[in-house]
Write a structure and sequence with these properties.
The structure is a homotetramer of 346-residue chains. With 346 residues, chain A is of the alpha/beta class. Chain A has two domains: 124 residues, NAD(P)-binding Rossmann-like Domain (Rossmann fold, 3-Layer(aba) Sandwich), CATH 3.40.50.720; 165 residues, Dihydrodipicolinate Reductase, domain 2 (2-Layer Sandwich). Chain A contains twelve helices and 13 strands. A seven-stranded mixed sheet of chain A has the order 8-9-7-10-13-12-11. Chain A has a six-stranded parallel sheet with strand order 2-1-3-4-6-5, sandwiched between helices. In chain A, β5, α6 and β6 form a beta-alpha-beta unit. In chain A, α1 crosses α12. Chain A is globular, with a radius of gyration of 20 Å. The relative contact order of chain A is 0.14. At the A-B interface, β7, β8, β9, β10 and β12 of A face β8, β9, β10, β11 and β13 of B.
Chain lengths: 346, 346, 346, 346
Amino acid sequence: MLNVGIIGASGYTGVELARILAGHPEVRLTVATSRQYAGKPLAEVFPNLRKRVDIVCENLGVGDLLGRADFFFCAVPHKTAMDIVPRLLDAGKKVVDLSADYRIHDAAVYEAWYQAHSSPQLLSEAAYGLPELYRDTIRAARLTANPGCYPTSVILALAPLLRNGLIHTSTVIIDSKSGTSGAGRAANVGTLFCEVTDGFRPYKVGGTHRHIPEIEQELSAAAGHPVTISFTPHLLPISRGILSTTYASLTEAGKEADLQSLYEQTYGSEAFVRVLPAGTTPATQHVRGSNCCDIALQQDPRTSRIIVMSAIDNIVKGASGQAVQNMNLMNGFAETTGLMGAPFFP
Amino acid sequence: MLNVGIIGASGYTGVELARILAGHPEVRLTVATSRQYAGKPLAEVFPNLRKRVDIVCENLGVGDLLGRADFFFCAVPHKTAMDIVPRLLDAGKKVVDLSADYRIHDAAVYEAWYQAHSSPQLLSEAAYGLPELYRDTIRAARLTANPGCYPTSVILALAPLLRNGLIHTSTVIIDSKSGTSGAGRAANVGTLFCEVTDGFRPYKVGGTHRHIPEIEQELSAAAGHPVTISFTPHLLPISRGILSTTYASLTEAGKEADLQSLYEQTYGSEAFVRVLPAGTTPATQHVRGSNCCDIALQQDPRTSRIIVMSAIDNIVKGASGQAVQNMNLMNGFAETTGLMGAPFFP
Amino acid sequence: MLNVGIIGASGYTGVELARILAGHPEVRLTVATSRQYAGKPLAEVFPNLRKRVDIVCENLGVGDLLGRADFFFCAVPHKTAMDIVPRLLDAGKKVVDLSADYRIHDAAVYEAWYQAHSSPQLLSEAAYGLPELYRDTIRAARLTANPGCYPTSVILALAPLLRNGLIHTSTVIIDSKSGTSGAGRAANVGTLFCEVTDGFRPYKVGGTHRHIPEIEQELSAAAGHPVTISFTPHLLPISRGILSTTYASLTEAGKEADLQSLYEQTYGSEAFVRVLPAGTTPATQHVRGSNCCDIALQQDPRTSRIIVMSAIDNIVKGASGQAVQNMNLMNGFAETTGLMGAPFFP
Amino acid sequence: MLNVGIIGASGYTGVELARILAGHPEVRLTVATSRQYAGKPLAEVFPNLRKRVDIVCENLGVGDLLGRADFFFCAVPHKTAMDIVPRLLDAGKKVVDLSADYRIHDAAVYEAWYQAHSSPQLLSEAAYGLPELYRDTIRAARLTANPGCYPTSVILALAPLLRNGLIHTSTVIIDSKSGTSGAGRAANVGTLFCEVTDGFRPYKVGGTHRHIPEIEQELSAAAGHPVTISFTPHLLPISRGILSTTYASLTEAGKEADLQSLYEQTYGSEAFVRVLPAGTTPATQHVRGSNCCDIALQQDPRTSRIIVMSAIDNIVKGASGQAVQNMNLMNGFAETTGLMGAPFFP
């Protein structure tokens, strides 16, 4: 049994990590930190965990954490993470970091979109934790940067086209829609029930969302040359789920390729990526509560464009589930351990 | 007082027409037809109308309708409408048709996307009922084709750019999201509460939705040359509302223009189009229950694209409200009569 | 034209007052206060009001308000209201107060459930603003205490039974369910979208909700003797709407009475109370956005109980709509002015 | 490995059975029937099951089923079930029946609320499948009648009080609220998204819901004498979840008892019943997707009533999860096998 800790357990990714780990046969949750709820059972903060998770939140510094677990999920905001992670690594711990702090390989890019980085030396070392693309790297890593939720949905959708030169990379447009849990559990007027329900809106339009450099880094790596995208996020009146609709113009090679087969071959042996039959579309309600990413593609013969659509549960494949998938790889467990639950519908 | 009738009163556009007309000081609803609910008060079918609308549904043929009203809203499905409308016109009635049957000027295009047309001679006569673009034509019309819900949101969003040559017309991509009332009131598994709630999905992807020829007709007219678009509709877990996110590459002229000012000038005197301040975004919950269309635009300097976003209530500005706006114009009433109610929020 | 002011315009009752008043032909909104949003147009705080309401929020003391309007809606929290209202009255203004501060006639009861009262001398003067029960009193009042949302739904449902001695008053149980807008617009974790959506829960169980003394005061008045009730509120995942399900054992007189007729006679001439046909049930979605209260009743012959159900929109008949109804009465306008819009459905 | 079959797999209880069984280590799903979807993979009907469940729906008579599995879940409507179950038993199979056909011990009562019974001889044999009350009986049964969803929530809530004579049984009032999945997957206007969302309503008021005789049978058994209840169901705009709020007057013994301790002792060792701390309330969103039943109780000293509240996921503890729990007991598996997943929140 591996002793694991959650640093920052009181957010939505924290409760979901605890839920998943409660059903994981190879690990034991031995410590969970929360400044706000120190001294409270986590199951009091999140009553869904009653009789399933009995850990008590603690407010601990890094030094006090080291003896408490061998593996850590760091689920604190970016900037905070970069001060914690190096000390965990120095003490010989392995870490999956769920913040943005180690996702960007290029410190200059990170600093342009976020702020100064206090441990840039780790940027080149950290594995980008998308197992379907970087499985072997992750297996060998002591630090894995868990991908952002939007990037997960987008990169899995577009990588096969980019790797094979099937689309004009200057034409990529990504229209993404996310459930409200992506905004976290902070008390803000903008995410009150009455502000969100029975409504829909875009936000951070025009190339300003911080997931853009992460998406571009990975799409560029897949394409073999720099890719610049348009990306527009929207807020859905649902709690869980991201649906990304991506558009690109096909190259001549793309027009002639059997794209459906390409995707089926690429992802056929993946447990968590499901390529849907031609003519169907993914839906967030069909991946809810699971680590699945559903992908469908459709050509538009009138415009020679390809539309690739992907759906994930943003808290699972877009955060905590993928983090556990990475933990499994980093510790030699079967990759799917604790994660094979089917989505729940309705 | 103008006597008006609703043909096909038992759908969601029917009940909304009845709701709006109940507060309209210049008209009297004198007849409402429904095959399914013949003999039932409309307020029994839709209890929201109790003590506000006291008409009883009747199952009447066109001949029996002629003596009952001077103006008709035809709210039956396409194909059915084309058999009713000519007989109403022949009897000297004026008509707003809410189906698709008279929206497309070119019979060949109509027949390619729908089916054979039984009264193609009316296609060139019918006014396209988007008052912000065709106000004078509508005033003079005896038949107005009420626009589709998606087209209303898209055309108002893009017309200013196209008229002024500010975007490359081959780059237009439209990602639209609609509330479920757009699917009507028929009993289908796909629109059951449990199938739609807490979920999101695209449908009719790849250039197949029947609103495409209508959108392209109007965008082409605005541009002065044929425009072909990519259009992807999605189903939102809300009852009312459409949000369209449209993308296009700016021409050199477009890059230099003050687009915010252009929109403010274009729509500044319109009662129902609200151009939002720069930096903000529209939201369906801010137009709910009203005849408003909210529009915002944002340039993406990284990709030289413009993103125009628009929000309407699909049953009001996208159907019944716009139909009443057209009725007002066709009968010499003030255009805004009965339609100035502010949106409901929360 | 009557000049009216809203004190505390930035909550959900404030925006709804502004929406209703924008369509009221007899009044002009001349001042709206908000500490938090001073200097901002109210339509910037609530974008649904754009092009319909052009007032700017101000942070004003009572002294500065007096010259700005002749009639005031006081929409600030209880305890704050009691310091403002007396000064408005002293200056000769008429007031509808939407807080709880003047609803309870007995200062000792008020102080037992709330806190010390600074203007108890007004408690006996204030009209209880339920027009269907106290129309004439309200017409003559300079201060009307607008009823609470739950009390409005409950009192209208039970008054006819109590006035006629048709139920055993010791058996009254009230199970109420409210939309989340009733919790206001403060940023709390408990009313975040993700905490409320796709869920349902009771709160303040066991006789602790502050609407209890108000309900009991009015039910006692209707019965002619003290009535003690059980009252359980619940939180619905909807923005607007209250549905109260009330239970009581019928007296012998009650078992023999034609209760359906009693209700139809009691409320037949009311514009805003709709007694539903026997065998049907009210639904919050059928009163949404309107000042209506729908009531249905059903006997349970197995237990000799009567179940009375009522539905209102908590922000309209439960707050701002009823406040305008009271303003109409207090100023000699037709009672229904500005309030006859039919509910919107779907 | 036990071979199990699902008869009637295409409803919401069917898909949930398949989801749960896919994660159950002791069983193999070997046959699933559906008339409507014969020949289709179940994962095509319910895409959430892709890559997790690979069974194909078949349209089979009972005779053809016998060789295909050793244990059956019968998930067809009442009346249909009573013709299938006896033949399965005759062939030596064990059965959990999810319909109402074997829940009522007294054939006359069954026939008064439903219709004539074709296999009444089985009524006395069938175990009532509420494991927390009838664990040993179920272990020995070859036929278990899976309880209704409402009855499960109500019986677990009230049994401790009734067994100990702590409430006056003539005062029991049950106000229940259910998610829409309880209405099944049939295409009806009344359960369309637009009819249900953002709304709330009671139905089958006044002692007419068919779960009443089932509830009364079990409450009477707990009390030791006949109990007649008032029961009002309501429809919630959520997909999963039932919350029951139950009221009763305390006897003198009840007023003096430590009720919180009684519940904690009664259910302390149960894996699926969670008694909440005093002063808190259950919420459907905290049991979502799990086999848990959360119970809280609160005395109302003003009225000497006790309010017991319970929350379940109606498809899991109220149907398919409880069915698997019963299967576990009937086959000697650990009772919690496949069912220990924590609820999903948010």
